[in-house]
């Protein structure tokens, strides 16, 4: 595992043990010398010009890749998780904004939509969209 994953797990364990001790389920444990490890990470993002190049890429010779490209671009433009943007419906779009309750966090978000995102969603709602999965890449 990576350092930040281990640090997060140790921190969650500490929180759990402190909670159990407060509820008098376990004896109090001195956790003061438990250091949470972590390291700085560099997050790399695509800018609009790079996303636009992907969006405008001619895939006529590989039409089966178009839904994957569209989902990738939609994810970049909305910042939503795959589990959220793959189940969008037309009522989620109101004018220039996307309203979505996120599945993982149960939080509601309002996202302004670029024209490319609106085009992807419009195309999706015109057809019977079948959400993509990675099942074909991960056979049982």
Word description of this protein:
This protein has 140 residues and is mainly alpha-helical. The protein has two domains: 1-44, no CATH class; 48-126, hpI Integrase, Chain A. 41% of the residues lie in helices and 9% in strands. It is built from five helices and three strands. A three-stranded antiparallel β-sheet has the order 1-2-3, with no helix packed on it. A hairpin with a 2-residue loop joins strand 1 and strand 2 (97-101). Helix 2 packs antiparallel against helix 3 (66-78) and helix 3 (66-78) crosses helix 5. The longest helix is centred in the first third of the chain and has 20 residues, at 3-22. The two termini are 24 Å apart.
Name the strands of the widest sheet in spatial order: 1-2-3
What characterizes the major β-sheet?
A: 3 strands, antiparallel
Regions with pLDDT < 50 over 5+ consecutive residues?
none
Q: What fraction, in percent, of the residue positions are helical?
A: 40-55%
Protein name: Tyr recombinase domain-containing protein
InterPro entries: DNA_brk_join_enz, Integrase-like_cat_sf
Keywords: DNA recombination
